[in-house]
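[PROTEIN RECORD]
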Amino acid sequence: MITTQDRLSEWMEVYSKELLRAVEKYPEDYAYKADFVPVVCERMRQALISGDFNKEGRAIKATCKYFGISYSYKAINEFLKGETQ
């Protein structure tokens, strides 16, 4: 059985790669450099856990695409709770 923690770990693995890719490809869109990505990822992990996250941004869009889910709060929350495949 897939747990919420498993899903969060899967999500964060993809999200961190996508965020690093976005920061490197579009540096003008980010207020931080690639070496700050781990800090941002930990903040995002905490925001996802609390349900108080902002879905705007290239990395979230790419992560949704990777998992084949809709780019919406509902779809992201359902995925993280294990309510989708």
Observations:
- The chain has a mean pLDDT of 94.
- The helical segments are 4-25, 37-50, 58-67, 73-80.
